[in-house]
Amino acid sequence: MQKPPHFHNKWQAITNFLNSDARHYQLLFLSTFFLTGILSLHWNLFPYQILITFSTALTTQYLMVKLLKLPISALKSSAISSFSLCLLFRSDTWWVIIIAAFLSIASKGIFKINGKHFFNPVNFGICSTILLTHQGWISPGQWGSAGYWWFLIGTLGFIVITSAHRIETAIAFIATYGVLFGYRILVFQQWPTDFFFHQFTNGALLLFTFFMITDPASTPSHKKARIAWAMSVGALAFYLQAYLWVTAAPIWALFFLSPLTPLIDYFFKGERFIWGKKANVNTATI
Q: Which of 32, 128, 151, 30 is nearest to 84 (CA)?
């Protein structure tokens, strides 16, 4: 049965809108997963944290738009950061949540070299807030097995839909992280394979792999250099978790290695990412 013309036109308009900016796909995915977690997986997330996170992030971003004369579309990025903070960061203190949201957005204007910020906003906001206040923590995976598999399927669908240009970064990280843990657990310690797979049944790890370390605005611009950098993040994350017992080690590894990005960009030139540029529609960031 042939679809009516008006249906085709509406579908084409929706597709064109989503393709006009990578952040549209990002917002669609994160908001859908967030709502599913709240309504179906019954996450223990207080409404005040959601309200404080979004209001602080959007207000901070709006002030930056006015002060730095940024495009109003930058508010999309702050909405993405807000969803990500709600997914990954927890605190029992309201002012700590404000600090995390504020630092996430403000870091883009503070830690910038040659017009490019080198910290992933949410990564910096979470890690710096924990270091400064000692009253927050990273939520590793309250998603349960059902939520994990839902997220995995959704992530793979997101990648297929957007054909993410930064997919090699995610693969380089997870391959390095996985191989090192595989050798340690299966060969060196000779533990059952269940212990190995348990390391990767974590929704936060998937969120980090496909939506944080793949940030096109803050990662190295040169493709080969970015792959080597992502492998370094994977190696450091393995060391922090396996030998220092650091919780959420990949997030901390990215935080420690992000300052290397300006140096890498200086020696290895690559095309600068620009939000909304049609050629870069299929990339994503949190």
A: 30
Give the domain extent around 132: 22-138
Q: What is the pLDDT of residues 46-81, one digit of tens each?
A: 888 999 999 999 999 999 999 988 888 889 999 999
Helix (H) or strand (E) holding 90: strand 89-90
Q: What is the average per-residue pLDDT within 123-140?
A: 94
pTM over 0.90: no
Out of 72, 107, 138, a domain closes at 138
231 occurs within a structural domain: yes
- Whole-angstrom CA distances from 163 to 15, 30, 84, 158 are 15, 17, 21, 8
CB 27 within 8 A of CB 286: no
271 and 202 together in one domain? yes
CA–CA separation, 179 and 254 (whole Å): 18
